[in-house]
Amino acid sequence: VKLALALVLAVVVGCAAPAPPPITVPPPVAAPTQAPAAEDVSGDVVVFAASSLTDAFKELSDQFHREHPNARVVFSFGGSSQLAIQLVNGARADVFASADQDQMDVAELGHALGGPQSIFVQNRLMLIAPHDNPAQITKLQDLARPGVKVVGAQAAVPIGAYTTQLLQSASASPSYGADFQRRVEANLVSREDTVRQIVAKIQLGEGDAAVVYVTDVTPQIADQFVEIQLPDELQVTARYPIALGTGHNRAGGEAFLAFVESAPAQQILAKWGFINSNITLPPQ
Amino acid sequence: MSLNVDRASVTTDLARHETTAAAADQQRKRASRGGRLRFGITEILALIMSAFLILPILGLLQRAMINGGLLDAIRRPIVYEAVRLSLWTTLAVLALTLVFGSPLALVLARRRFRGIIFLDSVVDLPIVLPPAVAGLALLLTFGRRGVFGPTLSAFGIELPFTTAAVVVASMFVAAPFYIRAARSGFLGVPREYEEAARVEGANEWQVFRFVTVPVAMPALFGGAVLCWARALGEFGATIMFAGQFLGRTQTMPLAIYAALESDTDAALGLSVILLVISFVLLVLFRRWLRGASEGV
Question: What's the complex ipTM?
């Protein structure tokens, strides 16, 4: 009986020691006796990521799994503002990647971060329309034309905040007019919760035009859109901060953070259109 | 969005069980005279289940109480615009459902033809369909590129992103609750009553108006309340088909979702308002049932 008790204890201690994430593959039977290597990460790594990172991060997770076969990345994609609120209200994530500084700050002020933040990637904006371009959008000015159905985002969603910046600087330029922002906002037909929902509304042809990230029109869906570049002097740079959360798999989170900054990961991000954080882009 | 599905199935069960609630009450009254409640395993499990159902409501109310800014929040546009929009769109849903749903319920209850089983199931489908699927189906049918999109456009109608789209989406998911209840109500009307009225010289409308409807009234009322409550809580189909825009398509559930990110007080205030409305609706519903069952 004593032996059995000791065994049970050993298993319990063994399970408790490496701080397993909530839902995980049962640890190998031999785990308690095996001294794990210092950098060996295992279990689920819970990553909360801005919806614009969806495709790039999915590919990243495959590469991460190749480098750390015992670990598996579990994503929750959403508007950064949604994710920040979930984190502040007690959701556990090992990593939080936000599309803007404001929402990362919301998480930090809410004590939902477990380490310092750093900018890991950058992005830019562009204008999209459905492939048949029913409102004949060819330039930013067209968004202010009466009757154009512009799809936007809630104010707290990063793409919404960046779009506001873009419209403000356009309104300051004489070629757009001081009321440009007001006229575009009068054309808004919906304020969506994530940038990918904006893309979907344009893809379905329900909206005439929207401002999204250049990374949102992925090669698989590119033929369903007309892409319109913004003038350089109005371009807005989106800087994506990343930080450890307060999840159960700290080692996993740290490994993912280190991986995201590595050359192979940055290559994957670049493949999906993101810009390395070391490249200096003109501030808007 | 799966939340909505749960809600849907819960409310259907409610409809089914509420009809026997009055009878159960009578039984309980008799039982309670028999002595005090015994505390066995059944009661303990029942207590746990009740706590599980009540605690989230208390949690919401408790947070609302300690938040001083609640009254202030109710005066914000996001709150009053959402309340205004929700009230009038759901009343429109209710009116349209009564006008078009009652005849359908009558047909389902009375007529026998090939395909009625199919029609019967199709009418129930939106109850079990995830609201997101309903939203997508509506987009692909009535959207600009949908099956009927070009036809509607020809008449200058573009539904998505309009208040009409809110009504369409809510009606699609809520009307079946009424139609179901009305159908069973009509089924419960003894044909002899109607025959007697016809013998007395009543025309079909008079039979319907003065015999069928009054006898089926408890079911019709119950179905209407559930339909309204479901429309009031509609989220998934609306956000997909109508989008969300202040004062135009942002109903109370959508406003709660949006406000959570920027204005927690407003989200709490709206939640409390919805909670109170839903509770009052349920109480009305039970009172009516009790009154009706005592009257018969």
Answer: 0.71
